Amino acid sequence: MMRSMFSGVTGLRNHQIKMDVIGNNIANVNTVGFKKSRVIFQDTLSQTMRGASSPQGNRAGTNPMQVGLGMTIASIDTIHSPTSAESTGNMTDMAIEGDGYFILKGDGIDQYYTRAGNFGFDEHGNLNSNGLMVLGWQDKENYMVPNDKSPQSIDTIQIRKGMMIPAEATTEVKFDKNLNAETPVGESYSLPFKVYDSLGCAHNLSIVLTKTAANEWEYRITHADGTETDLGGNTGTISFDGSGSGKYDSATGGPLTLNLSNGAANISLTIDFSNVTQYAKETNIDMTYQNGYAAGTLTGITTDTSGVITGIFDNGHSRQLAQVAIANFDNPAGLIKAGRNTYRYSNNSGEPQIGESGTGGRGTIAPGYLEMSNVDLSEEFTQMIITQRGFQANSRIITASDEMLQELVNIKR
Fold first, then answer.
1. Can you state the angle between helices 377-410 and 2-27, rounded to 10 degrees?
2. DSSP assignment of 168-201
3. Alpha helices for 85-193 (secondary structure H)
4. Which domains can be identified in the chain, with CATH numbers?
5. How far is 217 from 211, CA to CA, in rounded Å?
6. What pLDDT was estimated at residue 409?
7. Measured between alpha carbons, how far is 371 from 249 in angstroms, rounded to an integer?
8. Is the dihedral of CA 328, 330, 332, 334 positive or negative?
């Protein structure tokens, strides 16, 4: 009789724990990246009243007689099932489509792992989540994605608001499109273009192209005002295929040099006419490429599916500034919940397998999205009813056992 009471107590205790887990699931129905838990019950030891016996002669075998001593919790599992993501439009928000976890760094050397990608930048430009800094790959001296993307080289990501990229001097200029083959000899066309020095100062130049023969043009490069002071290698010729195909053949002259007095390094650049043609169509020659630019200030960022954060600068250029790392585990269910939507690895989760998203079984990143909770309210409410009824049934066991004990006590009266 006392056994039934103790069994009821185990039922009450463990159904209460299951209700606690259900309550936590429901409380986190709108928590970003939350993974629900489930409780699995199992019975405890049984008291053997009679052992089993084997058949002997004309006597049949008998099964064991055992009385159970209640139940206990077999496991409380974290269910890492995939769920949908919601769009936020914020480029620092990220969701993982597939397996994997973002890597965060706390105080000291501890690493945490999360599915919640609600990231932002702090005052010093650190990409962080709730005070924990996001880890990835970044060359902080040059603000670019490094070639070394080994697991050992991951570090915090820092992108300061208003950061600048240095100017780059022009070293190559390319011209494209057409020079009219019907242009009379001696007629000229001019085209303005711009190059940059090592300080980012723009220098306005002009190229004058004069037809000197059927398949030959002469070019002369000057400053925008027509002067040639401080210019070198600024004249040459462009020749086209003599067979009449109108295709570029060769060019002479260059490299163009600018001897500067503004403190910048002198400019030396090559001029490429290989894509210029000479057909009987209007002249529309244009400069299609030059690789110099002024210094630029960061105005925005974008993120791609591989976790590369690209900075957009006001000089019209962009640069890959950093890349977010992803960790995967052989047994995600073995991770330990550490609060703040984070996990820590355990002996049963396996070591983190760190790498780029989209590689090694790791999922891809969806920028501008956040992963929703995988809690299903209909399932949780169903489990709540089942758990409540289980709790009530176990309380009835205790009540009924108490009444039976009361009857025993009353026998001596």
1. 160
2. B---EEEEEEE--TTPPTT-EEEEEEEEE-TT--
3. none
4. 2-42+68-80+374-410 (no CATH), 85-165+298-371 (no CATH), 172-290 (2.60.98.20)
5. 4
6. 86
7. 58
8. negative
**Please, are residues 115 and 341 in contact by the beta-carbon 8 Å criterion?**
yes
Taking phi over 0 as left and psi of -120 to 50 as alpha, with beta for the rest, 117 belongs to: alpha
Q: Please check whether residue 330 is in contact with residue 349, taking contact to mean a CB–CB distance below 8 angstroms.
A: yes
What's the CA gap between 357 and 362, in Å, rounded?
Answer: 5
The single-letter DSSP state of residue 141 is T
Q: How far apart are CA 352 and CA 99, in angstroms?
A: 12
Q: Write out the E strands in 304-390.
A: 308-313, 318-324, 326-328, 336-339, 342-344, 353-355, 364-367, 369-371
Per-residue pLDDT at 408: 86
Separation of alpha carbons 198 and 53, rounded Å: 96
Entry pTM: 0.84
Residue type, 191: L
Distance CA 223, CA 193 (A): 10
- For residue 9 the two structure tokens come to 């107590």
How many Å apart are CA 325 and CA 239, to the nearest integer?
52
Q: How far apart are CA 363 and CA 83, in angstroms?
A: 13
Please list, in sequence order, all residues whose beta carbon lies within 8 angstroms of the beta carbon of residue 151, skipping any fewer than 6 positions away. Answer: 325, 352, 353, 354, 355
Burial 396-408 (b: 16+ CB within 10 A, else e): ebbeebeeeeeee
Yes or no: say if 398 and 5 are a contact pair by the CB < 8 Å rule. Answer: yes
Tokens of 150: 């080994």
Q: What's the pLDDT score for residue 143? A: 86
Q: What is the pLDDT of residue 229?
A: 84
In the block, tokens 């169903």 appear at: 382
pLDDT tens digits for range 350-361: 999 999 999 999
Rg of the chain over CA atoms, in angstroms?
A: 38
pLDDT tens digits, one per residue of 30-50: 999 999 999 999 999 898 999
Q: Which SS3 state, helix, strand or coil, does residue 103 take?
A: strand
Alpha carbon distance 113, 354 (integer Å): 11
Are the C-beta atoms of 286 and 191 separated by less than 8 Å?
Answer: yes
Q: Among residues 311, 314, 309, 310, which one has the least CA distance to residue 296?
A: 314
Q: Which residues of the chain have pLDDT under 50?
A: none
